[in-house]
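Predict the 3D structure for this chain.
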Amino acid sequence: MPGSTVTFHGGVREIGGNKLLIEDGPDRVLFDFGPSFAPRYKEFYLNFLRPRPTNPVEDLLEFDLIPRIPGLYSREALHGSDLPYEAPRIHAVFLTHAHFDHAGYLEHIDPEIPVYLGPDTKTLLDTIESSGTVRYGTHPWTLLTPGSPVRIGNIEVRPHPVDHSIPGAYGYVVHTSSGTLAYTGDFRQHGPRAELTERFLAAAAEDAPAAFVTEGTRVGPDPRRNFSEGTVRSEVDRVLQGSPDLVLGTCYPRDIDRIVTLYEAARDADRAFVVSLKTAFLLTSVAGRPGFPRVPVPGHTPDLYVYGRPKRRYYKWEEPFLDAALDADYVRTHGRRLFLMLEMMHFPELIDLRPPKDSPFIYSMSEPFSEEDLEAEVLQNWLEHFQLRKHSLHASGHCSAPELVSIAQHLRPAQTFPIHTDHPDDFHPKGTTVVSPEKGVAYPIGGT
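Done. Predicted structure below.
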């Protein structure tokens, strides 16, 4: 096919799983490579039922959960599959951010293919690997500089930081021989780094993109309130000031902006902020790096403590925090001076903590995408059993539908492709042709 094209191998009518392949003559560049949150994955794999580590690509190909792209996968990952190994035919992979649905399949990629990413994203990937079971493989890692172009043959990629619910997120402006494509990754306009998003959009507008690829997580039915981080802070202040007892909460464990917000709210309410061992390791790992200027550090920052839940054995990365860690007895007897963050997998600690009836529980995460969300049901069962009051206080990591419409109308590309959404057909900006992409179809950049 003449000219440059974009093919969507994931993120099509589903949340997550973005996989954009841009081709320009012999040059081929992939943007993001992770699993989706689509129900189809859960039809075959759930919890501990996962693809075999010895045959990962074979198992995922069986159910069309990973694309058949020749020259992408490592020889080891292809073991047992009917997709023959080929030397790399993809010349680079660019990541937008460190969320699992954008980076979680990197382990399967041929180790000779370079991966381009922001410095903060690389720090987070290293930390995630060190404290968990996720692996990203061995690659030639290349750190991006904001605004500095990367040329891959005929394709020039300009990275621009954007605001999202994890540090170090990027959007991209991609120049090809047929025109320019702007790709948002996941982004928002209402977060603490909103000015980054505005600069990205200004840079994209200046280059007059022929194609605009935007996430659309909140297009369609959206029960979430469009809180800013400042609104979250003021609402958390209200809850803390109104409670005479222990306050509990949960947030996405790598949303460092939210962790900082909650820590500062706790201090202003004359409470100590108590985090999990894994959060303590994350904060310690990223503190002092340029992208994390305000990160509190256990053992160094006032009123920040670690909760040491009992375990049969502790990992090496947990050991530095154990001597000063608080236990359930301490939290139970000093609750009125504490704000304890409790990840959902640690809810059995409530049996020992025994928080007083009507203690507030601040739920600072995205609302479920479906009323049938099993995790939400289990969460509610625990809260009801211990008679805790839930306060949903969250600033989404994604633009609202009206914001996305306004952005598309401002950019006025020839074509707009909504991905990372269950409802692409509900997106109706004026001044651009909206194309609801089909998986595996190559679309000319700049139209036909």
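The first helix runs from residue 39 to 44.
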